Task: structure prediction
Amino acid sequence: MMKTILKHWRAAVRIVASLLLFASAGMAFVWYYQMGPLRRTHDPDWVRQHSAERYWHEVRKSIQRWGWMHDDFGPAGDYGDKEFLAWALARIRPGDDISSCFVGHRHSAFAMITNQNIGKEAAAWLEWWESNQAKSQEEWIQDGFAKTGIQVSLPPTEADVIPLLELLGTETGVDSEYSFRFLKYNAFRWLRDSELDFEPLEFVFAHSADAAKPQIQAGLLEYRKHERNHPKRETAGLLYFGTVGDWYDDWSYIYLSAHPVFKQRMNALIVGLFVSATALILCTVTIPRRKETSA
Result:
């Protein structure tokens, strides 16, 4: 046995080197590519350095590669559009769990995207989709307001401002918080993205009588709270009639979004090259020399 091992040790070394090479390549693929979006979106420093658009791009890739994590319903609901909803609904079947922590509370994301309170059952959402997939996201949001008795125009008009501010200023209890969460968020971005250039301070000066009402004041404060988290300069979650702020700088966005990712990819490339080179050197050293034959 020992003689056999000693006789074929070079082949054994080559096999081990090959296995190490494949293992390192597999680990690099999983760590840098497969888990890349998940690692980046859970890194506070990375999140601070990147725009909401880039963050949502990475969250979407993470969902597509790994499935829904517990907190994914937040960005998916805030930034998801019709295309993403179609992708998500195509991957569920009647009876599937879409509401628990283990599947990312997907029903909450669906409600935020559509402004509809369809519930926690996959079958109900699939049935709703069959009847409403031909509509735009803005039409879904408009229908959601109509179900609460609020009629808004598409595109938005001045007549939408007061009813939506009253909705934003509505006090909610624990039982109704879920329903009003998606309604308030969509009321906020309906005003934010409209061509009315809505600004709370300008509204106060222009409509002092309405602004003196407690519910309107609460609505203006709620609008400001949402605006801090989702400023007008964002393009993620922007409704079709919205425009990005004038200060938006494409070059700074490209730099901030690409630099950390480029660094990570370079690390993967360096590690891969090092492992490959080591394996090749090892194989070269262990190749037996050809014996010279006498003439």
Notes: The chain is about 65% helix and 0% strand.
